[in-house]
Write a structure and sequence with these properties.
The structure is a homodimer of 883-residue chains. By secondary structure, the first copy, chain A, is an alpha/beta fold. The first copy, chain A, is 47% helix and 17% strand. Chain A is elongated, with a radius of gyration of 34 Å. The relative contact order of chain A is 0.06.
């Protein structure tokens, strides 16, 4: 640590964020690269840290401040506290990372009863001078001395009322003087001392206020939530005031170097002539588009454009700039990385690669997987201007429109009947899950990002807003109000779960599509990633979607879903209620032909790419009708008495359903266990797969089927089933007079399989981690039950840091994955290992799978682009880490 | 390998089992220590192995056989094949380990049409000579040449019928000659050659038959089942014949050096005068007790006693001896370790320690945990006066009641279906084993203590009575009569295998208790074992039982079972259907007082010993009435309409029951998850435990409560619950003005807990593996479902080598246990770690837990003695392995 407490802008640079704060470093950097920045200096974060111990501004610091103030006076050609030619400054906080909750800016510091007169003379604008003084007292009182903002507002309102005025701008100098007098009285009442006339005291009070604000509750809480160290401290920048409100040759504004909504490369922003920065933000006057700045002054417009280009060249990213024009001279007051929409982020990143501003590696690190996720959800047409009636937390992305319904049962029923419903609740509980599932979107007035509604909606992929506190629900009269607007049941609203906006009425939506820029960005990702990306797809349609989204194969094709269509389910049910192997064979024979067609279609869609087909996994009773329904049907059939055949069949189904009922079906008679006890089921499926592949081969295609056995827990299961399948396949090859390439592998989804992966690998051609089931067993959490009961509490209380079914639990489940990989490869050095649980589409989990050494991840087609990006990001980060 | 193919008895010794087989080594050893063994020699197992390759007896072997035969002739003073003074021999197989399924003995080898005349002259007993010849042809034909036994029996029966005779002994020499002639014809018909008159050919054929029998299907199957190497091979012993049937000064018998039923140190056995060994085994004549041998000849009785003592001194174990007395001279034909009942095994082991024959270490290795298990089986209440309807030999101790069944297949089927069956047979054969296994007990009307039924039943630990000669079975009419009483199929009888009593109807049984010898043996075990032994006990009664059985504390006290009594369940239900914490507190307050009493009672019972109390574990809905029942009750209440209060309560219970219903309750909302979501439940339990302990301490006792949290999967669950409990306890200490020692630990029963045991150990004072749940989750096997569906198939097909809920799966679950131990102790070096799953009472699992470094196992009180022994055995074995 150096003893230097203060840096003039020209003494610092952009890399000194930790010492000078983000804003300070930005100002120093802009100064350094020759942009017109008003002179100023920065008190370092080290001083702040010291202050937290001593709680006072010591003499050393005071004398250093004086020293830099003198230098500033020299540069400005003005004197701090001088009546004739007063130097005014702004004081701002600025931590190394952007941190809301800290002290706001204080402008016009240095004004007092004397200097205000000097300002008046200097600007020849009495009203401006007193308005500036009035504003300063208000800001200093509010920001530095914690006098409630509305107390000042009340005084202002009283005076306007007294004179029958509507706008602040209508106040005359005399009126402003009266207000100043009242402000001073308020100040004395609240602080017990007179408003400080000494500019040095104003300055040191303001600096202390910044330091104190580092530990105000809002700041502490923000740091906690965002995991920012309490040790960073904040810097303070003191800058010469420039005035955009010095007349019609003055102005103030903000500008992005590119369009933050679309990414278009063109200055974007707005400005107000004869105004101070806060006027732009306050929205009292409608600002002009930055396009009009050329009309105001072509020179300054060009200067600003050049400044933007210079900053982009320098920072290699889109900038968000604040500027002020004082009497025809441009001053740059701030620059920072510009916030942008997901769409803009992608375009900017790709454009900057084309402009040789950044590398491909850098471009992919500019986008978060969450942004891609947003781009892949239905969203509000960006060309439509919306006026939110309320705002909440963006708990689950995407937009949805529907009729407002407050009652969960009603939502369930009407949703089932096909109506588009937005469920509006104080909060949700486990009993509401069905209603949520049948609504288009969920809106709650309470709760945070980990509330029940948020967690469940994200799991369901439904748009959701939580904690929209402005909304007051009046359930009895079936309506809600927000900011004076009343919305009745059945009125249509739109929620934007990506932004947290609640909008009245229906809004045009756009279906997500891959823009050419996104395709380009994902192409960069493909160049950079090491993990393969496959998709979980059960139908040819899904396979085609997956291909379009960039999947390199199918990592999981669930065959059981193929049995649920109306013409097949009865055959499946016949098979299950069969009493003998022979009877079963008849239904299975018919199912085989259908399955063969399924596999033919999916293999042809993925011609030349691997398709991993998982054999039947769920318990058989899942295919039978619910017992309650069967009992009802049987009662009816008995009464009618006209179809004894059907009655017998239904009775058999009921009996079988009772036989097959289980206490804990998730860990019961399913997966390979069914395959072992009823060999003919898997024999049928294997036959269908291999026959379909042979047909394709004969037709000149290149099918790559991989047969996957589910729920293996013991090597002997793998061994037995592989042997049986091999026998079946060998017979087909002999019969057909040809062979095809195929593999037989297994899901690794039971803890025991990971622990004995070395044994299992002896018989498996590939592994695919089923991390959904693995997470269930490793935690002994039944997902359906856990998410409806204790997981919300666990997340709220921080017992679980993250929802383990969304982001893989590295300490527990992850350890088993690593054990499985190490043991599997111990037996087979080049064993292909992937993952096909939902974690395959989760960026944090993908990072883990990269480091665990997997060959690929497989996720839903919809998440393939996210996975491509996430996989590239971790590969790039690893490379950077190694450099 | 040596080239020596044959050993005379005096050339070998008892340690040469691998080379000479068990029987051969025994004969050599007896010869060596000076016992009267008939001379003979042994062809080694190496020769057998060689034969398996060459499939012939080569010249080298033939000449060596001739050499040893000459030496034998010299010792015997007889000549092989000599008409005047013929040497006869027996030929027996003998593998290194006892192995049924191999070739039986052939006696009287060397007899032919000539030598039979010599034998006649020599013994001056024509009938004996021809009977011997007849027997030889039959044995040689049956055993060596595989002519079906019943073909010979048919010839014999025909002749008896022709002469109107009933017993074999009534046959005259002339009749026997006719039979011999018919036997020879049969022989020629079946083998295509004449019965060999050349004794050398008889001998070499017999030796080959022994070698061939090594690979007969029965032998192979026995080796497979018992995991005996196919590489061992069998030896062949050739021994000079001695005859117990040479007149009234001859006899043959078997004797145990101690009573194999009780262990009493006294010769035990039986003999038949003027008989050959096979007559004893066949059970045709009822033998005399060995006590009567003194009357036959005091000298020989003493010789036999001395031989027994010498053998015991030598072998350090109880011996089972075969002997023959030929014309007043005792010959020892075989000795082996005597099979015994569990009770005898314990007494013999303890007595032999007292006699300084064996060490304590050796004594505990003499008993199998299974035997202890048998001793802990029930017997007839001694206070009940029983009137036996028949008496037999007490062949296998313990008592059993069941329905009389005569047919073995029927017994198998009905036994499997859960009926209690007593199998009643003339005698049993190896085909009857399955029926015996599925019966409660076995009763035969023939045979002695060494008959098939007796030996097998003792092995199975089933009560068995043999030789109940008063009972006459009439199989055709499905009944038996005894002393005028008729008992039909399906009537219930009770057999007392310890006393030999058959009783009509069911009799009150008593649970077994520990004999003084067993207590002594377990005391040795306690000295030698390293694992602590605790019991799983939920009530004071169980705790007292556990103490009596030697438990050193309670490893698992399940508190939820305390809520199931009629006066408590309604309170528990009230608590569950409470809608608020306040409502819940009222029911919990009442439950607390009851729980405090529970804990007081159990802590006082285990005064000074650790008592691990597990907080509530099962899902709450388990305490609510079944939904079907509630629905019915509600319907009834509605109809009556007289108790609206109760109706409301029932409706609430139904609603709550629906809310709490789960898809997979085993891995759902239970254990610490309920404790976290409803803190007041665990607070109540912790309060009850600590208050009970404080009361005990104030009364001068030494309570050692240890609070155990169930189903921890994440360190934060442990941390949160421990903090909450500590707060509760600190408050009680403050209120009561005193403190007690306590610990807070956790079950390790979720895979994730083992994988993160290092984190969990930060907050846990102890670990206790819950291997039931851990096995379920590690395999993803719901025990209830798996055992009802696929596990039987898995065991039958060998997919699972053992039932993993009985014997711990070392490769999978065991690996997690080891990981948990290593990680837990990494954090806390001296962390106490135990196991309280059912595996805690399984000897094989106990062996694993010993090596895994656990501090103790905890099992049901009933299995505590077994655990004490098993723990000692593994400790001794480990010590021996290290020596």
């Amino acid at each position: 640590m150096t003893d230097k407490k203060i840096y003039a802008f020209e003494e610092g640079n952009g890399s000194m964020k930790n010492l000078l704060g983000g804003k300070g470093a930005g100002l120093a950097e802009m100064t350094k690269i020759g942009l017109p920045v008003p002179p100023g200096f920065i008190i370092t974060t080290e001083v702040c840290k010291e202050y937290q111990k001593t709680k006072k501004i010591d003499e050393d610091l005071t004398s250093e401040i004086l020293e830099y103030l003198h230098k500033l006076e020299e540069k400005a050609g003005k004197i701090f506290g001088d009546k004739a030619n007063p130097l005014l400054v702004s004081v701002r906080s600025g931590a190394p990372v952007s941190m809301p909750g800290m002290m706001d800016t204080i402008l016009n510091l240095g004004l007092n009863d004397d200097t205000v007169e000097g300002l008046k003379e200097l600007t020849n604008n009495e009203r401006f001078a007193y308005d500036s003084y009035r504003r300063f007292i208000q800001m200093f009182g509010d920001v530095a001395m914690e006098i409630p903002h509305n107390e000042f507002a009340k005084i202002l309102d009283n005076h306007k009322e007294k004179h029958g005025l509507k706008n602040d701008t209508d106040l005359t100098s005399e009126m402003l003087k009266d207000i100043i007098a009242d402000y001073k009285i308020l100040y004395q009442e609240k602080t017990g001392e007179e408003f400080p006339q000494d500019p040095m005291m104003q300055l040191s009070r303001s600096i202390e206020a910044v330091f104190k604000s580092w530990n105000n509750p809002r700041a502490i809480s923000y740091r906690n939530i965002n995991k920012i160290s309490d040790e960073l401290g904040t810097a303070v920048s003191i800058v010469m005031m420039v005035f955009g409100n010095m007349g019609d040759d003055s102005a103030t504004g903000v500008a992005f170097t590119r369009n933050p909504a679309t990414g278009e490369k063109k200055l974007y922003g707005e400005f107000l002539t004869n105004a101070q920065g806060e006027d732009v933000v306050a929205g009292i006057r409608t600002p002009l588009s930055i396009d009009k700045l050329g009309e105001f002054s072509p020179t300054i417009f060009n200067q600003l454009k050049e400044a933007g280009e210079k900053l982009e060249q320098h920072y290699k990213d889109m900038q968000d700039m604040e500027f002020t024009i004082e009497k025809g001279k441009l001053y740059m007051l701030q620059t920072r990385t510009g916030k942008r929409t997901a769409q803009a982020a992608v375009k900017v990143a790709v454009d900057m690669v084309n402009e040789n501003l950044i590398t491909k590696e850098e471009s992919i690190l500019r986008i978060t997987p969450v942004q891609i996720d947003h781009l892949l959800h239905k969203m509000i047409d960006p060309s439509v201007k919306v006026s939110p009636i309320a705002k909440g937390l963006p708990a689950s992305p995407g937009a949805a429109s529907g009729k407002v319904v407050f009652d969960v049962k009603e939502a369930t029923k009407r949703g089932k009947d096909g109506e588009a419903i937005i469920l509006v609740r104080l909060e949700t509980t486990p009993e509401d899950i069905e209603g949520m599932a049948h609504s288009e979107g969920i809106l709650t007035t309470r709760g945070g990002m980990t509330a029940h509604a948020a967690v469940v909606a994200r799991g369901m992929g439904k748009p959701c807003i939580v904690g929209a506190e402005d909304i007051k629900i009046d359930a009895e009269s079936n309506r809600f109000t927000t900011n004076g607007i009343e919305v009745k049941k059945d009125e249509i609203i739109t929620i934007d779960g990506s932004l947290g906006n609640v909008i009245l009425g229906e809004v045009t939506m756009v279906e997500p599509e891959l823009t050419s820029e996104l395709r380009q960005l994902l192409a960069y990702s493909d160049e950079l990633r090491e993990l393969g990306i496959r998709a979980n797809a059960n139908t040819p349609e899904e396979a085609i979607k997956a291909l379009d989204y960039g999947a390199e194969g199918i990592g999981l094709c669930r065959t059981e879903r193929m049995f649920l269509s109306p013409e097949r389910l009865p055959l499946m049910q016949d098979m299950i209620i069969s009493e003998s192997k022979e009877e079963r064979s008849i239904s299975l024979g018919k199912l085989k032909d259908m399955q063969k067609k399924d596999f033919y279609d999916i293999l042809i869609a993925m011609d030349g790419l691997p398709v991993i087909i998982r054999l039947l996994d769920p318990p058989l009773h899942e295919f039978l009708p619910q017992r309650e329904r069967l009992e009802k049907e049987i009662a009816e059939l008995k009464e009618k008495g006209n179809d004894p055949e059907l009655l017998k069949k239904k009775e058999k189904a009921l009996q079988r359903s009772q036989e097959l009922a289980e206490f804990n079906p998730m860990i019961g008679f399913r997966g390979c266990r069914v395959g072992i006890v009823y060999p003919e089921i898997y024999e049928m499926q294997v036959t269908a797969i291999i026959e379909a592949a042979i047909q394709l081969k004969k037709e000149g295609h290149d099918p790559k089927p991989k047969i996957m056995l589910p729920l293996i827990s013991h090597v002997n299961e793998m061994k037995t089933l592989k042997e049986r399948a091999t026998t079946v396949i060998t017979n087909i090859f002999r019969k057909e007079g040809t062979t095809i390439d195929y593999q037989i592998g297994t899901m690794i989804e039971v803890p025991r399989a990971t622990l004995t992966a070395d044994q299992i690998a002896e018989y498996a051609d590939f592994f695919s981690f089923g991390t959904n089931d693995l997470t269930q067993a490793t935690f002994a959490f039944s997902r359906d039950d856990a998410e409806a009961t204790f997981i919300p509490t666990y997340l709220k209380d921080g017992i679980l840091p993250t929802e383990p079914f969304i982001t893989i639990d590295q300490d527990g489940v992850g350890k088993l994955v690593r054990i499985g990989v190490v043991l599997g490869r111990k037996t087979k050095n080049s064993l292909e290992i992937g993952i096909c649980g939902e974690h395959g589409g989760d960026p944090k989990s993908i990072e883990f799978f990269h480091y665990a050494g997997l060959n690929y991840v497989s996720c839903s087609p919809f998440r393939v682009p996210i996975a491509r990006l996430a996989a590239a990001q971790v590969a790039v980060k690893e490379k950077l880490g190694k450099e």
